[in-house]
Design goal:
The chain is of the alpha+beta class. It contains three helices and 20 strands.
Length: 308
């Protein structure tokens, strides 16, 4: 009995020492991330970092974090939490609060959700993401440029062992509600995207092969596939080949919503009619080139730079 008791005491002491050592390293890693943010072109502050969860977890809470880049884009929240099992620290879970702020040069946007959580598994001392999932429920975004919301959304990625830096990507959004005038009240869209992404050595996305894209709204359907590239300036280049049999109704809806000028709508309709097949199905490329987006020969607008 004494031997067993001694073993238990020794094991408890060793495990407690491991936890306190690990908790200090976890806290220091969070402190270092904020301290070195200027080296990455970021302004980052917080009101405190704490670690709890003894004996089986590392629960890191960052209070009042704020991150801002040199363009005035950023994020602010009352807190953010990172959880990891002490015996499996490479598997982390991140939880965000129900209310967050997206900082923009033109004003602040509010991001609300009933749940937002991510799970990620890393390898090579957190230098390589093996798989990850981001889930959001009851999300509503309202900002200077517009608003939208959805009921449920999930983004999943998985590293491909056969191709370093490549990830399978799956995005599913249900109950998507773009808040635009003239859209039928109560109608919601579904969005599904499956593809393969390429990430550079610095962790920044470089390209996305869209293998399957599906957008459904009311009883209208849009499908597509293609290849998109992101250059060093954050400009999107590439092409998506879209098809829909509901192009006339979609055009009318975009005019009613104020996305297309009624005066140029007939020009768009005539061009789309020429692109449509004899069956009435429109098959046309949407091209992205040097910040411009076009549907066939028709200009659709400017695509904002994407920065990470």
């Amino acid at each position: 009995m004494r031997i067993l008791l001694a073993v238990i005491v020794i094991f408890t002491a060793l495990w407690g020492g491991y936890w306190f050592y690990g908790s200090q390293r976890a806290e220091q890693a969070a402190v270092d991330w904020f301290a070195t943010a200027p080296e990455r072109g970021l302004y980052a502050t917080h009101d405190g970092i704490s670690v709890a969860g003894f004996p089986n977890r590392f629960d890191i809470t960052v209070t009042s974090p704020e991150v801002l880049d040199n363009r005035g884009l950023g994020w602010r929240a009352p807190f953010v939490q990172v959880f990891a099992l002490s015996y499996r620290p490479n598997h982390v879970i991140v939880t965000w609060p129900n209310e967050q702020e997206i900082l923009q040069p033109g004003g602040t946007a509010m991001l609300q959700s009933s749940r937002m959580q991510a799970s990620a598994v890393f390898a090579d001392a957190f230098r390589s993401l093996q798989r990850g999932t981001l889930v959001a429920e009851g999300l509503d975004y309202a900002g200077p440029q517009g608003a939208f919301g959805f009921d449920n959304g999930q983004l999943a990625v998985r590293a491909l062992a056969s191709a370093p830096g490549s990830y399978e990507v799956a995005l599913n959004i249900a109950g998507l509600r773009p808040e635009l005038p003239a859209l039928p009240e109560g109608e919601a869209a579904t969005l599904v995207l499956d593809g393969r992404a390429q990430v550079g050595p610095d962790g920044r996305p470089q390209s996305l092969e869209v293998q399957n894209l599906h957008l459904g709204f009311a009883d209208m359907q849009l499908a597509g596939q293609g290849q998109l590239e992101l250059d060093a300036q954050g400009l999107l280049n590439g092409q998506l080949d879209l098809s829909t049999a509901d192009w006339q109704r979609m055009l009318a809806l975009t005019v009613e919503a104020g996305l297309v000028d009624p005066e140029v709508a007939p020009t768009y309709e005539n061009a789309m009619r020429l692109l449509a097949e004899s069956t009435g199905t429109l098959r046309a490329p949407v091209t992205f080139n040097e910040g411009m987006m076009r549907l066939g020969p028709l200009p659709l607008g400017v695509v904002p730079q994407v920065r990470f």
